Amino acid sequence: MAGDNPAVCSDDTENQREKEEKENNKLSLISWNVDGLDPEEQPERARGLCSYIISHSPDVVFLQELIQPYTRFMKKRLAANYTFIEGGKERYFIGMMLKKSRITLLDSEIVEYSTSRQMRNLLVAQVLFKGQKLCLMTSHFESCKPNAANRMIQLRLVMKRMTKAPDDVTVLFGGDTNLRDAEMVEVGLPGCVCDVWEQLGEPEHCRYTWDTYVNTNLDHRYKSRFRFDRLYLRRAAREGVPQLEPDSMALIGLEKLKCGLYTSDHWGIYCTFSAL
Prior knowledge:
With 276 residues, the chain is an alpha+beta fold. Helices cover 26% and strands 33% of the residues. The strands form three sheets. A six-stranded mixed sheet has the order 3-4-2-1-14-13.
């Protein structure tokens, strides 16, 4: 029988070891506008958010529209495993969570948007992942259709920061951009930066992160679908430096909670990358 063959057992063990090593080299990430500004059922929605983070166990979490009650709640449950970085303290703000066992935080900074009228900024963290230098960025661009000019200014600033990072650093941006496709066309992406969703072949199942046809948390009279939440990648260019390559993308938060609401009015993005 095959189970009695030492060679087969050895092969199975080796295959399992290779599989585990491959998984260990993957970077996982969640980006999510958690809609902390909505007062409806906040405790249950905060518990829902924690449940998704615990079940997916991402290495990196980018969060937008955080409020202090959310961060206090999450720290009580997740601070043992994650380092928290906040982009503000007042009203609502952005933040990052970094898994302590996998990500080493070197430095962080908050970059202000001088033209923002909605308290928006950019949070940047320099980290190490398995010895690889990463620059992580998250932001919440200006909201609402009339604020397109401000959004495009903010996008240009982020792209400038991404392209000017040292060539031995991989840069990952994720956040709620509020971008419409026409605005994206007008600004464009630098040649060294890719849209991760596009890089993965534009999978239809995770095109729309804002979908009021399905998500009923807010009673919108006019229904709409947008790809507001986006991930951008600038690979390290220096020869011999490991590369991050997008592997998979999925939307999370698609299940209603017991209270009848979703965790947020946005779907979250869960994405994995292979370190090559």
